[in-house]
Automatic annotation (TrEMBL):
One of its GO terms (biological process) is negative regulation of DNA-templated transcription. It comes from Pseudonocardia alni. GO terms for molecular function: DNA binding. Keywords: DNA-binding, Transcription, Transcription regulation. Gene3D superfamilies: Winged helix-like DNA-binding domain superfamily/Winged helix DNA-binding domain (1.10.10.10). This is Transcriptional regulator. It holds the Pfam family Penicillinase_R.
Length: 120
């Protein structure tokens, strides 16, 4: 289990998930700067921690790393839901509470997914 993200880690992941391509530390810092003026080394440390935890991949490009998410936001959200279902408690009760909270559109998506040929 990867665990939850801290506030700054989540902000960095939002930048990476929102960008079309790989980012350097300075790119992430620049995108965070309007709301969060952070030191370069702070952003570098957060990205290094995210890499160590398996949230991001990195590739050396010259003297700097290029960072990309290891999985999409949707994949990570699904993983988090799976972790919750696998945790202690009554899985059926959790699923029933969730099913009662979804919108009609969300219900239709779930039904289509459960009855589709790609199930499994």
């Amino acid at each position: 289990m990867r665990g939850r993200l801290g506030e700054l880690e989540a902000a960095v992941m939002d930048v990476l998930w929102g960008d079309a391509g790989p980012c350097r530390v300075r790119d992430v810092r620049a995108r965070l700067a309007p709301a969060r003026p952070l030191a370069y080394t702070t952003v570098m440390t957060v990205l290094d921690n995210l890499h160590r935890k398996g949230w991001v991949q990195r590739e050396l490009d010259g003297r700097a790393y290029l960072y990309t998410p290891a999985a999409s936001r949707e994949e990570e959200t699904a993983r988090a839901l799976r972790d919750l279902l696998d945790g202690p408690g009554d899985t059926e009760a959790v699923l029933l509470h969730f099913a009662r909270s979804v919108s009609e559109r969300e219900s239709a998506v779930l039904l289509a997914a459960l009855s589709g040929p790609d199930r499994g």
